[in-house]
Amino acid sequence: MTHLAIHLSGIHLKLASEAGEVNILNGIDLQVAVGETLGLVGPSGSGKSSLMMIMAGLERPSQGSAVVLGKKLGQMSEDALALFRRNHVGIVFQSFHLIPTMTALENVAIPLELAGKRGALKAAKELLERVGLASRLSHYPSQLSGGEQQRVALARAFAAKPGLLLADEPTGNLDQATGEGVIDLLFDLNRNSGATLVLITHDANLAGRCSRVARLKDGRLDGDVS
Ligand SMILES: Nc1ncnc2c1ncn2[C@@H]1O[C@H](COP(=O)(O)OP(=O)(O)OP(=O)(O)O)[C@@H](O)[C@H]1O
Ligand SMILES: [Mg+2]
Fold first, then answer.
1. What is the mean pLDDT of the chain?
2. Which ligand 1 atom is the nearest neighbour of the CA of 50?
3. Is residue 48 classed as helix, strand or coil in its secondary structure?
């Protein structure tokens, strides 16, 4: 039983680079309630994407514990983490991570097909229509603009109706009107299915719509705003 979607305690992340070890996260304690919308803000290089990777179980912390939707990620195997993500966590990466050999439609349908859901292509088509890409279903990622790729990535993250959606700069490449459409879609998911949202953003408008804003600076949380 937990009312927390995310519970991070004492998270440190050190990564090796050519120039030696780099301290990327330096003791993060963060709790996000189920159904909450959290805006994660902070300067470039402050560790936002790294923190999202920890929440998704895609990066293991050097120290500290991450409990997500009641699961202790540190105790799970890579296979168990992959299955957990497929069933419960939607992720929109800053760099989209679309599969280059699949069309927009196939990219969105794939998580549903992997999860053994029926009607994957129909559901994927509806989601792409909602993000304004009805006329781009059969385009490959290289045939899409940056903002279009971003919308495909969003549709894919929504496809399995995840309990937790982690989105890294989901409106970073979109014009204002398209960005607002995407923001509405994100908050609809929160309202209609109670999904918890963590949105990394430089967009003050988007951060302002979240129920809480957390600010990262040099790998530390700089206190909560709002
Ligand atoms: N694999 C890696 N090895 C070493 N250092 C890394 C690695 N990945 C990221 N870093 C460093 O960690 C720091 C935090 O990176 P991160 O991508 O989390 O920042 P960010 O807050 O998401 O920035 P932005 O707003 O520019 O996306 C940066 O200084 C970056 O150079
Ligand atoms: Mg980033």
1. 93
2. 18
3. helix
- Kindly report, residue by residue over 1-36, the tens digit of the pLDDT: 458 999 999 999 999 988 899 999 999 999 999 999
d(CA 153, CA 133): 12
- Give the separation between CA 104 and CA 176, rounded to whole angstroms: 22
Q: Global pTM?
A: 0.92
Q: State the distance from the centre of ligand 1 to the C-alpha of 18, rounded, in angstroms.
A: 14
Contact indicator for 120, 88 with CB cutoff of 8 Å: no
Torsion angle of C-alpha atoms 44, 151, 164, 168, degrees rounded to 10? 0
Domain edges within the chain: 35-60+77-221
- CB neighbours of 27 closer than 8 A, spacing ≥ 6? 10, 11, 12, 64, 220
In the block, tokens 């549903």 appear at 112
Residue 201 near ligand 1, beta carbon < 6 Å: no
**CA 126 to ligand 1 center in whole angstroms:** 35
Buried b (16+ CB within 10 A) or exposed e, 82-112: eebbeebbbbbbbebebeeeebbbbbbbbbb
Alpha helices (H) in the chain, listed in sequence order: 48-55, 78-88, 104-114, 120-130, 146-159, 176-193, 204-209
CATH 3.30.9.10 describes domain 35-60+77-221: no
Distance CA 9, CA 221 (A): 12
What is the sign of the dihedral through the CA atoms of 43, 5, 81 and 159?
A: negative
Spatial distance between the Cα atoms of 199 and 80, rounded to a whole number of angstroms = 25
